[in-house]
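Project outcomes to date are best conveyed with an example. Our students and postdoctoral researchers have been running inverse folding experiments weekly, and each run begins with a structure described purely in C-alpha cells. The record below, which covers 190 residues, was selected by the lab manager from last quarter's runs and is presented without edits.
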C-alpha cells in the first residue's frame, strides 16, 4: 500500500490532511485580503501561531488514535476478550508511555514486542534514510505535542512552521506505515 493510500484509507490520518488543506485555504484567503485590509496582519500572525500548535496536536494524536484503535485487534484477531483487555489495560490513556519521546528512536516501543522484533526492525530502519528521518519526525511531533499539552498551549516556543509540520507528518507517516506493516507481518495478519 502506497503512503497516499495509507493516509487516505485511515480516518485519523485523513483528518490531518483535511486540517492542513483547510489551513492552506484560510491562509490563501487572508493573503488575498491583506493588501486591502492591512489591519488583519496581526490576526494572520495570531491565527498562524494558534494553528501551528493545534496542527501539531492533531498530527501527533492521529498516530495515537490509529494505534489504540487497531493494535489490540491486530494482535488478538478473533480473541475479543483479550483484545478488549489489552486495549483498556495497556493502550487507552497510556500511549504516551509506549515511547521514550526524548530519544531519537522508537526502540522502547519496539522492545515491547520482544528483543528479536526490536533488533530486526531497528536494523531495517537504520538501513533506510527515509525511515530514519520518519522516525525522528514521529518522535519530534509526539514530543512537541506533549510539551504543548503539559507546559501550556501558549508557552511552548515552536521552532518550525505549519509547512514544516506537514512535511514532518508525511515523513512520520512513512515510518509509522512501515512499523505498522511490520507488526502485522510478524503477527501473521494480512
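After processing, the design step wrote out the following sequence:
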Amino acid at each position: 500500500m502506497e503512503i497516499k493510500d495509507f493516509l487516505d484509507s485511515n480516518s485519523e490520518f485523513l483528518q490531518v490532511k483535511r486540517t492542513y488543506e483547510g489551513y492552506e485555504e484560510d491562509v490563501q484567503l487572508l493573503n488575498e485580503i491583506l493588501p486591502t485590509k492591512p489591519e488583519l496582519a496581526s490576526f494572520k500572525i495570531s491565527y498562524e501561531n494558534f494553528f501551528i500548535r493545534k496542527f501539531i496536536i492533531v498530527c501527533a494524536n492521529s498516530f495515537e488514535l490509529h494505534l489504540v484503535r487497531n493494535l489490540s485487534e491486530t494482535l488478538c484477531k478473533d480473541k475479543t476478550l483479550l483484545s478488549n483487555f489489552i486495549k483498556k489495560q495497556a493502550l487507552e490513556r497510556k500511549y504516551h508511555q509506549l515511547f521514550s519521546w526524548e530519544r531519537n528512536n522508537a526502540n522502547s516501543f519496539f522492545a515491547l514486542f520482544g528483543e528479536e522484533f526490536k533488533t530486526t526492525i531497528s536494523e531495517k530502519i537504520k538501513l533506510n534514510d527515509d525511515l530514519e528521518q520518519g522516525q525522528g519526525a514521529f518522535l519530534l511531533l509526539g514530543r512537541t505535542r506533549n510539551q504543548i499539552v503539559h507546559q501550556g498551549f501558549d508557552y511552548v516556543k515552536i521552532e518550525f512552521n505549519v509547512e514544516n509540520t506537514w512535511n514532518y507528518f508525511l515523513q512520520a507517516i512513512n515510518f509509522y506505515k512501515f512499523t505498522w506493516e511490520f507488526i502485522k507481518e510478524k503477527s501473521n495478519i494480512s
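Helices lie at 3-9, 11-33, 41-75, 80-91, 107-111, 115-126, 129-151, 162-186. The radius of gyration is 18 Å. The training component of this project remains on track.
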